[in-house]
Amino acid sequence: METLIFSIKIDVPKQKVWEALWSETNYPKWTSVFGEGNKAISDWNEGSKIQFISKDGGGLFSLIEKIIINEQIVFKHLGELKNGEEITNEWSGAKEKYFLSESNKLTDLKVEIDTKSEYKEYFSSVFPKALEIVKQISENNKNKIK
Domains (ranges, CATH) in the chain? Predict the structure, then answer.
């Protein structure tokens, strides 16, 4: 596995970016670049399971390895979802990490994802588009999210 790193600066405080990333309403918007109709199902507690489910019922199941609200979340992928069934596979152990830091109400969002070499080009192309959508959601909601 290889770790890819993506980042973007967003002109809002980090709690607004966090909301853009993980709220039930916003998550499907920015993940639409990976496929329409995505959702994340979890209680959002450290140590809890999370399912990233696509419109067709496929996806990934993972563990929330670390969470610090408005600052950091680390997912440890455990495997794939197929027809509602959890299947451990080559993604087991891969991590996806999100870090938010703020200076003068400007948030730096950094994402680190472990991927197999055959997916490097795909993620390198698509993930920056996803982060642009997070930026648009965050900045369009400057005055709406408290």
Answer: 2-140 (3.30.530.20)
pTM (2 d.p.): 0.91
Q: Would you say 99 and 109 are in contact if contact means Cβ atoms under 8 Å apart?
A: yes
Helix H segments across 44-108? Answer: none
Nearest to 42 by CA among 28, 55, 53: 53
Please tell me the distance from the alpha carbon of residue 112 to that of residue 136, in angstroms, as a whole number.
20
Say how far apart CA 109 and CA 13 lie, in whole Å. 11
Helices (H), the chain: 14-22, 27-30, 120-140
Long-range pairs for 21-28 at CB < 8 Å and ≥24 separation?
A: 21/98, 21/109, 21/134, 22/73, 26/137
Mean pLDDT (10-residue bins), the chain, 146 residues:
95 95 94 90 95 87 96 94 81 91 94 92 95 95 52
